[in-house]
Structures are given as C-alpha cells and as structure tokens.
C-alpha cells in the first residue's frame, strides 16, 4: 500500500519527520560497525527546521 503524501496535514508531515529522525538516532546508537548516520540525521534536522519555518510563515 503506497499512500500519497499530497493529502497529509502539516501535523502529519511533522510527526513523520520526527519519527524518522528518532529512528535514525536509535539506529545510530546500536550500530556495531564504525558507521555513522550523522550526515543523514543532520540533513533530516535541516529539512525539519526548514519545514517548521515554512509552516510558521504560512
């Protein structure tokens, strides 16, 4: 089932972004290999911040 994001409310988008960010942080904590998700986390934090700023201006 592939749900379109076109009909998501601002609150739903924000909740989804926060959930993905929390999952990435949790995953990074449990990685055994010397890998890092820091770049992905930073990019998602930037995206979330830009989205929050756009919602406030709307």
How many DSSP-defined strands? Answer: 0
Structural class: mainly alpha
Mean pLDDT: 79
How many DSSP helices?
Answer: 2
Low-confidence stretches: none
Radius of gyration: 14 Å
Main pleated-sheet profile: none
SSE succession? HH
Range of helix content = over 70%
Measured between the Cα atoms of the first and last residue, the distance is 31 Å
Strand content: under 5%
Q: Which shape, going by the Cα principal axes?
A: elongated
Structure description:
By secondary structure, the protein is mostly helical. The chain is 71% helix and 0% strand. The protein has 2 helices and no strands. The chain has helices spanning 10-30, 38-57. The radius of gyration is 14 Å and the shape is elongated. The mean pLDDT is 79.
Offer a concise description of the structure.
By secondary structure, the chain is mainly alpha-helical. It has helices spanning 10-30, 38-57.
Output the keywords.
mainly alpha, 2 helices, 58 residues
Please outline the helices and strands:
Elements: H1 10-30, H2 38-57
Helix pairs in contact: 1-2
């Amino acid at each position: 089932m592939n749900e379109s994001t076109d009909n998501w409310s601002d609150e739903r988008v924000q909740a989804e972004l926060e959930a993905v960010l929390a999952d990435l942080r949790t995953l990074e904590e449990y990685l055994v290999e010397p890998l890092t998700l820091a770049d992905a986390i930073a990019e998602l934090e930037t995206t979330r911040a830009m989205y929050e700023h756009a919602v406030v201006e709307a």
